[in-house]
Amino acid sequence: MSVLARHLKTLSLVVGLGLFAQGAVFAQDSFELRFNHVLGPNEPFHKGFEAWAERVKERTDGGLTIQVFHSAQLGVEEDIIEQIRQGANIGQNTDAARLGTYVPGIAVVNGPYFVSSLEESFKLADSPTMQEWQAELAEQHGLKVVCFDWVQGFRNFYTNGPVRTPEDLSGQRIRTPPAPIWQESIRALGAEPVAMNFGDVYPGLQQRAIDGAELVYPNITAANLNEVVDHANETKHILLTNFQVVSSQWFDGLPPEYQTALVEECRAAGQATSAEIEEATQTAKATLKERGMTIVEDVDMEAFRAAGEKAYETLGLVEAKNTVQEEIGIKAGQ
Fold first, then answer.
1. Pick from 188, 217, 3, 216: nearest CA to 95
2. Cβ contacts of residue 71 below 8 Å, gap of 6+?
3. With contact defined as beta carbons under 8 Å apart, do 92 and 35 qualify?
4. What is the rounded distance in angstroms from the CA atom of residue 38 to the CA atom of residue 332?
5. pTM tops 0.70, yes or no
């Protein structure tokens, strides 16, 4: 081989390696998040998550994409959270009750009568104590809270009979998610909690494995649960604030501008969706009336509020509850 030929071959190899390295860098600038939630495709949250995905894709010029999976297509929530902790590029819509498994104090967000409006829920992001709990989740448990501006509405009891006082729930087996704050909240309010996945609620009610469930109005219409329960009892015992979590390891590997886009668009989409859900709640309520469901509005709210305090006492969360409420401007007993 001539000197010129060897030179050209070497030059070609160098250029090729350079292009390969450049391609590797470009590949590292492309990221994907597979986002899982348990709700159906007709739920307001699903459309909100898709809007979040679209905005992030636009803002990062396709560098960060989010694939949204409804109806727990990627798996059961608790299993997904464990995968997230191991660094998987998966996200999950969850709640403070489940996160309380890792940082007990944060569970107060899903306690009885903790907040009573969207404004109070959104203020939680400014609470120093909430910020400390989020840092602990990220640093010690691998769970990065992207945002928690997704408010699913007030949870009520849906049963086959009227519920106006805590005594009316005595002996009734009510489905709840499998987390201590849920279990103790429902027990404090007078019922017997039964841990069950959301997808099993319809057959559970149909087969009388449970007597009722505590959910939000859009859940009932979306899953046709009015076919297996006939009373909606407006106890409004929990204003359900949802958390969007991803792997801390995965999040830390994103470029700073992608991190900012993911968080800011999560908050914007969450707040917009929360406002839409307030309207969707009224629509769902009207639909259920048309389908023959009895709406019980004359509930003894003071009795339920007083009963709910026992959940915080049982779990040793009274101080945590009072601290956060004070930080966001809720007066004791409000």
1. 216
2. 38, 39, 40, 41, 199
3. yes
4. 34
5. yes
Q: What is the residue type of 207?
A: Q
- The candidate with the shortest Cα–Cα distance to 56, out of 38, 75, 35, 42, is 35
Helices 301-314, 180-188: inter-axial angle, 10-degree rounding: 140
277 touches 152 (CB < 8 A): yes
CATH 3.40.50.10320 fits 30-327, yes or no: no
The amino acid at 66: I
Residue type, 38: V
Task: Kindly give the confidence (pLDDT) of every residue in the chain, 334 residues in length, as a single tens digit, with 9 standing for 90 and above.
Answer: 544 444 444 444 434 444 433 443 334 579 999 999 998 898 889 999 999 999 999 999 999 999 999 999 999 999 999 999 999 999 999 999 999 999 999 999 999 999 999 999 999 999 999 999 999 999 999 999 999 999 999 999 999 999 999 999 999 999 998 889 999 999 999 999 999 988 899 999 999 999 999 999 989 998 999 999 999 999 999 999 999 999 999 999 999 999 999 999 999 999 999 999 988 899 999 999 999 999 999 999 999 999 999 999 999 999 999 999 999 999 765 5
The tokens for 72 are: 């727990």
